[in-house]
Design goal:
Blueprint: H1 2-15, H2 30-40, H3 45-52, H4 56-70, H5 75-84
Helix pairs in contact: 2-4, 2-5, 3-4, 4-5
């Protein structure tokens, strides 16, 4: 049983170091990045649209393109990619604890 836990421990230790910026990060527009931050804060597409002054369909399209650029499968995955890279202001990078 101990041998099965060793690889998990190694993965956890390597996760403590923030990852470099994802390959497509530099291609994100300011609007896409702003929407990703709102997504990380838990806002719905409708709430995001009201804040930035655009239709929900536009919000979804911009987020979808952001997911593609980041290589993310969905919104939570995109937020996780940014968090692990330390690219969410006020966020906690992987392996760090907040107090």
């Amino acid at each position: 049983m101990t041998t099965q836990l060793a690889p998990v421990a190694a993965d956890t230790a390597s996760a403590a170091t923030p990852c470099p910026a994802p390959p497509g990060f530099h291609k994100l527009t300011a609007d896409q990045l702003r929407l990703l931050h709102m997504l990380a804060d838990g806002l719905t597409h409708e709430q995001m649209g009201r804040r930035v002054g655009c239709h929900t369909v536009t919000v979804r399209g911009r987020l979808h393109r952001a997911y593609q650029l980041l290589g993310a499968r969905n919104g939570p995955h995109a937020v996780a990619i940014l968090a692990r890279s330390g690219l969410l202001p006020g966020g906690v990078a992987a392996g760090e604890t907040s107090r």
